[in-house]
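User: Just a sanity check before I run the rest of the batch. Below are the structure tokens for the first item. I only need the designed sequence back.
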């Protein structure tokens, strides 16, 4: 009698009841394998997307660096031009002052009065408003 009760209760001896748990285990293993495969594919796709994004960002960074370099060169050029114009303005101011001194001495020596408008004698004191420059967002676009 002991052998008969073992055959009924045991599921691993090849009886009809033992096929159901093995089938479930096999299906679960297949499902897990498929899930792991999908997970690996998803990670590969994410990695490819990130590599593409890195490439795009590097390209954008390079373009921005080129724009910055171009802007810096433009700034250096404008600063040099400003320095040149400032030096020229100082030279012309000194020359004008010398000419005004010469006219004053000529008036004193010869006794002649020259009627020169004040605006020509001291043009640096003319009411002059410097042009206003405003930066806009499209200055940095090439």
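Assistant: Here's the designed sequence for the first item:
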């Amino acid at each position: 009698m002991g052998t008969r009760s073992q055959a009924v209760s045991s599921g691993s001896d090849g009886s009809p009841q033992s096929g159901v748990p093995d089938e479930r285990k096999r299906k679960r293993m297949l499902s897990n394998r498929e899930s792991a495969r999908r997970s690996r594919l998803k990670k590969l796709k994410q990695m490819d997307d990130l590599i593409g994004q890195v490439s795009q960002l590097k390209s954008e960074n390079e373009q921005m660096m080129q724009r910055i370099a171009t802007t810096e060169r433009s700034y250096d050029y404008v600063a040099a031009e400003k320095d040149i114009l400032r030096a020229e303005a100082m030279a012309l101011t000194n020359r004008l002052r010398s000419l005004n001194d010469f006219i004053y001495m000529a008036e004193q020596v010869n006794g002649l009065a020259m009627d020169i408008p004040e605006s020509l004698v001291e043009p640096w004191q003319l009411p002059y408003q410097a042009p206003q420059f405003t930066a806009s967002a499209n200055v940095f676009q090439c």
